[in-house]
Amino acid sequence: MKMVQEEIRKGPWTEREDFKLNCFVGLFGDRRWDNIAKVSGLNRTGKSCRLRWVNYLHPGLKRGKLTPQEERLVLELQSKWGNRWSRIAHRLPGRTDNEIKNYWRTHMRKQAQEKKRGLSPSSSSSNSCLTSASNPTVDSLPFPKTGEESFYDTGGHDTIAADSLSFPKTGEESFYDTGGPEIIVSAEKQIEEEKAGENVYSMDDIWKDIALSEEKTIKPAYCSFSEGGSTFSHHALTSSSWEYFLDSLWRMDEEIGRRNLIKSPTGGQ
DNA sequence: AACATACTCAACCGCACTGTA
DNA sequence: TTACAGTGCGGTTGAGTATGT
Predict the structure, then answer these.
(1) Which residues put CB within 7 Å of chain C, the nucleic strand?
(2) Does residue A118 share a domain with residue A40?
(3) In sequence order, what are the residues at sequence separation of 6 or more whose Cβ sits closer than 8 angstroms to the Cβ of residue A205?
(4) What rounded mean pLDDT belongs to chain A?
């Protein structure tokens, strides 16, 4: 059975896509995005998948507006480092470079407008923070020092963490509140049970295997995680269990679709 | 209430860097 | 050594929403 290459999808992500991406990142880790994109059948580019994961789906993400302390820090670091957004984001756990970039743009625009109107820059609420001597300095803040890994630069999943298999903690009601994907839960269980297993495969082995098996049909023979010199779990997805997994995923899709239709006939986003 | 404007945020694009075969 | 693929970063865009007139 030959996979027909469908058109690459663009634009806003649907809940289904998020769900699939989450599942596949949980299985394979947040590396090899092109492969994740391919294997998941998302019809998205690897780049798009990565961006969605990093900016939206990552379990460590904070939601909502930046706190005044975070705003101060962004301003201070920007004045120190310039537009090194990802570097700045490293100092703000749970915040993404995109978020910070957006905040900065908004802030600058506000400032420009105030200047235009002839207001003194010091009247800007955020601006005064920069000069305040009572503000905590960058280095005194309890954030990771530069060079440490940011929360979202995980270097791949060491384990199939429950977080990565569940969903962002947004607090908002979501499709995955609906009883949960049992297949994922049972996969986790299986992983736990097999943690002491002796057959260990690196992610590269897994991907190679996927590449090999792709000619016939897409199904990796193994699912284990070996990153940074240590392997944390060993989990073999046999062809049949892989088929079962995918099948379950697609069936979940249908279920989600049905629920969404009932919930909001107009659709989301 | 209707329209205009401002704002926010998710997503895309292009380029540069890095790792690997 | 080199070419290529994958990844990360910064800039930009545009849709949706909030606010003002």
Answers:
(1) A 31-35, 46-47, 50-51, 83-87, 97-98, 101-102, 105, 153, 269
(2) no
(3) A222
(4) 60
